[in-house]
Design goal:
Length: 237
């Protein structure tokens, strides 16, 4: 595992194995929401969305698409921010698995501003949302796959993309390893939680992505509790 923390881990995550799924995956998504609250998962996404909104001269309405959303829980923070700032926000939650879509629909059953669609990243239409977000999503792609995946996110956005992912480091790996075993007996969570950290990012990975995309608009910053906020503006004054 320590070797995996030096190089991006190649071992597949169980949540990427769509032949399994079922109730155990839905339970894992519930437990993942607890981990997200403990580790402050929503903050980098909110920071990036707010930055792109300001750069667009603070429009009165804003559409967001969350790609690879899981149950989409971080988006509740975006809606609260929108309420405080008088922004008419609509959010589309998109995920490849039906279990994730079911969890997202259940979580936001009384929220008319959110719709849920089962959709592949590579089937997204161009310019379908002002901002496209990916929270703990792009670490699922290998170094070779990552630029193509991010280009699809950019194509789907009008203003830009916000990525929120994990800093690959022994401290968050140990914290996640311990926390997953304290809060859950779910096999997905115990396996995928620490592995997600091992498949996370360091500054040099974002520099490589910036070079591969050939865009000066990619900016990344380290955020508390070992996360990166990455903002890629399509147009910047």
């Amino acid at each position: 595992m320590f070797k995996a923390l030096k190089l991006r881990a190649s071992e597949p995550e169980m949540m990427d194995d769509f032949s399994r799924g079922g109730q155990e995956l839905r339970e894992a998504l519930k437990h993942l929401r607890r981990l997200n609250r403990i580790f402050g998962a929503a903050a980098p996404t909110l920071l990036g969305v707010r930055r792109l909104w300001k750069e667009a001269d603070e429009p009165a309405s804003l559409s967001v698409l969350d790609a690879g959303c899981g149950s989409g829980d971080v988006n509740a923070h975006l809606l609260r921010w929108a309420d405080k700032n008088g922004v008419a926000m609509t959010i589309t939650l998109a995920d490849l698995t039906e279990e994730a879509c079911e969890e997202a629909r259940a979580l936001f059953v009384n929220e008319p501003r959110i719709k849920v669609e089962r959709k592949d990243l590579f089937a997204l239409e161009e310019n379908i949302a002002d901002i496209v977000t990916g929270t703990q999503f792009v670490h699922h792609f290998s170094e070779d796959e990552l630029p193509g995946a991010v280009e699809k996110l950019l194509d789907a956005s009008r203003l830009g993309v916000v990525l929120n992912d994990i800093h690959r480091h022994i401290v968050p790996w140990a914290a996640v390893w311990l926390t997953t075993r304290l809060i859950s007996n779910n096999a997905y969570i115990k396996h995928d939680g620490p592995l997600s950290v091992a498949k996370g990012f360091r500054a040099e990975d974002w520099k490589k992505l910036k070079a591969a995309l050939a865009t000066p608009q990619l900016e990344y910053s380290w955020r508390p509790l070992f996360r990166y906020a990455v903002v890629i503006a399509k147009y910047r004054r």
